[in-house]
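Hey, quick one: can you model this chain's 3D structure?
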Amino acid sequence: MNLARRTVGSLRGGLAIIVVTMFVVTLAMLFGYEVPDKSREMVSMFVGAQIGYVKDILSYYFPSLNSARSGARVTDQ
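Sure thing. Here's the predicted structure for all 77 residues.
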């Protein structure tokens, strides 16, 4: 493994930690503070975007969670 691959891997892991930490802090703040009516839609969009980022991070680092979920689907015929 060369230096560039190690650096990119560390950067990827560091960014994942930052995004997940931001998501947890955002949720903690939503439980602790009242969101003004003017900002409610913007906060909802921000949290929705963060949910997507966290989902992508979890599916990257834990691919078995995604494949187990897709294999558990039952279809009615």
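One thing worth noting: The radius of gyration is 17 Å.
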